[in-house]
Amino acid sequence: MFEIEFSDDAIIDLQWFKKHERSIILDSIESNLRYEPMVETRNRKRLRPNQTAEWELRIGKYCVFYDVETVIRIVSIEAVGSKSGNTLRVRGKEKEL
Prior knowledge:
There is one protein chain. By secondary structure, the chain is α+β, with helices and mostly antiparallel strands. The protein has two helices and seven strands, in the order βααββββββ. Strands 1, 2, 3, 4, 5, 6 and 7 form a seven-stranded mixed sheet that branches. A hairpin with a 2-residue loop joins β3 (about 55-60) and β4 (about 60-70).
């Protein structure tokens, strides 16, 4: 089992969402990343090298970017945003990965 931590930026990112959206995102993080965060699935994939994170979890139109520390078994949530087409928005602003 992995511990889940949120970066300060990810906590701020979550505050941009409505309470209902935050609930969906947090429930999905818990159910998808607690046990096998490094297993690729239809909604979870390793990203090309970038400055944000190594992994992405898609939850409908929402995206959670995270890193995994296997030795100490911690999933670190680095950013949370929403995606429409090829446009990623974090805190209401377009962001490049």
